[in-house]
Design goal:
Length: about 100
């Protein structure tokens, strides 16, 4: 998968990085989810949880107490949180990564 997703730090220390996907389908979203998985696991190699929050149209990681990456997903308005969670689980599996996937913190 090839993602054109661009992660930007919100401060000079790189404590929180955000990106916004332009995906309009779940299939298009998979490349951006793969990008998120890659950057999250490069910083937090284990114990990762991805949270899908439809109300805020975001996927956040790696934990409720230490969010370092937020992917804004405008298409969440068109799909259920469960569909996006299943998409996340599918991409994690295809990459051979272990992580929890849940609804909002």
């Amino acid at each position: 998968m090839n993602s054109s997703l661009r992660w930007e730090s919100t401060d000079n220390f790189g404590n929180l990085s955000i990106a916004t996907t332009s995906a309009t389908t779940l299939d298009e979203l998979k490349a951006d989810i793969e990008s998120m998985i890659d950057v999250v696991f490069s910083r937090t190699p284990e114990g990762v949880t991805f949270s899908v929050d439809k109300a805020y149209q975001e996927i956040a990681a790696p934990s409720d107490s230490q969010v370092t990456h937020v992917l804004t997903v405008p298409l969440l308005a068109s799909f259920s949180s469960d569909q996006v969670q299943e998409c996340l689980k599918e991409v994690l599996g295809s990459l051979g990564r272990e992580a929890s996937v849940q609804g909002p913190w």
